[in-house]
């Protein structure tokens, strides 16, 4: 069993991005600038945005975070998005999800200029992805593809089972793995909460992408020997330690890992790759604007 180490992979890619940024600056170019909008005081969102700020600093990007209280109106948020859309100094930006319940997330996503949508959520970018055209790819699926490529995981002709059908992970990763390409040409089965007898599908899988949102859902008796398992989930569960919790994924790692050829850890697997993908998208946006 080999760990698909997202942290090590992300660190290596950061060095490449930092070198390209310095080359741009040395020729008189502008540093890429990533902005984020954070609404409310959700702990996980604050941690995630802080990680993005740190990553920007490490690769030489400029970064800006706009923080607003949870009780702002949807109209106010849309007006702030419009300001970022027309700000010539901003290459790309994200609106950190989830948003407070009184704000319609799809309205917010639709308001973002597709050329600055480095999260890859705008319908224009989703449509281009589905057609296999160059576009911003949602950060987590992009990170998964990059990780598989980094470890030279063979995907051509393999059967991949995706657990989960979200617009952020499940649908785009299924699309990407089914397309022609170095990391693609898979036969893809998508399972979800209404799929009957999920185990019958996962036992056939050469590659499993677990993004179903249920902690430790995938058990050892659901995985065949030699499978590649990518765990997208992350949940806090109670633990007898100083924090009072520990992080687990959608995979029961202790029992599943011995059966795998490759598997991602949680934390340290897909998470760092999501952030590095956001940086890659921002660099792409900066190149496009230049």
Percentage of residues assigned to helices: 40-55%
- Tell me which CATH architecture of the largest domain applies here: 3-Layer(aba) Sandwich
How big is the Rg? Answer: 19 Å
CATH class of the largest domain equals Alpha Beta
Distance between the termini: 44 Å
Average predicted local confidence, pLDDT: 95
Total strands: the figure is: 11
Overall body shape: globular
CATH topology of the largest domain: Rossmann fold
What is the name of the CATH superfamily of the largest domain? NAD(P)-binding Rossmann-like Domain
**In percent terms, what proportion of residues is strand?**
15-25%
Give a quick account of the main beta sheet: strands, pairing sense, barrel closure. Answer: 6 strands, parallel
**Structural class, judged by helices and strands?**
alpha/beta
Lateral arrangement of strands in the main beta sheet:
1-11-8-7-5-6
Residue windows where pLDDT falls under 50 for at least 5 positions: none
- Number of helices, counting only DSSP H or I runs of 4 residues or more: 10
Count structural domains.
Answer: 2
Order of helices and strands: EHEHEHEHHHEHEHEEEEHEH
């Amino acid at each position: 069993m080999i760990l698909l180490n997202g942290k090590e992979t992300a660190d290596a890619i950061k060095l490449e991005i930092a070198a390209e940024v310095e080359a741009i600056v040395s020729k008189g170019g502008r540093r890429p600038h990533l902005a984020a909008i954070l609404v409310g005081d959700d702990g996980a969102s604050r941690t995630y945005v802080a990680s993005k700020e740190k990553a920007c600093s490490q690769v030489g990007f400029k970064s800006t975070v706009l923080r607003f209280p949870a009780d702002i109106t949807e109209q106010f948020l849309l007006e702030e998005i419009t300001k970022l859309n027309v700000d010539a100094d901003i290459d790309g930006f994200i609106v950190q999800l989830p948003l407070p319940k009184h704000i319609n997330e799809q309205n917010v996503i639709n308001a973002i200029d597709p050329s600055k949508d480095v999260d890859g959520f705008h319908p224009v970018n989703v449509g281009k992805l589905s057609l296999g055209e160059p576009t911003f790819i949602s950060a987590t699926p992009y990170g998964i593809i990059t990780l598989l490529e980094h470890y030279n995981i063979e995907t051509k002709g393999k059967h991949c089972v995706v657990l989960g059908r979200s617009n952020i992970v499940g649908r785009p990763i299924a699309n990407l793995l089914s397309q022609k390409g170095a990391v693609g040409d898979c036969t893809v089965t998508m399972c979800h909460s209404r799929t009957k007898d999920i185990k019958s599908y996962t036992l056939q899988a050469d590659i499993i992408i677990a993004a179903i949102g249920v902690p430790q859902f995938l058990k050892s008796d659901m995985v065949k020997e030699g499978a590649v398992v990518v765990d997208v989930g992350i949940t806090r569960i109670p633990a007898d330690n100083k924090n009072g919790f520990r992080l687990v994924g959608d995979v029961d790692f202790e029992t599943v890992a011995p059966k795998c050829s490759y598997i991602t850890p949680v934390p340290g697997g897909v998470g760092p790759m999501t952030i590095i993908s956001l940086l890659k998208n921002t660099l792409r946006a900066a190149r496009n604007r230049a």
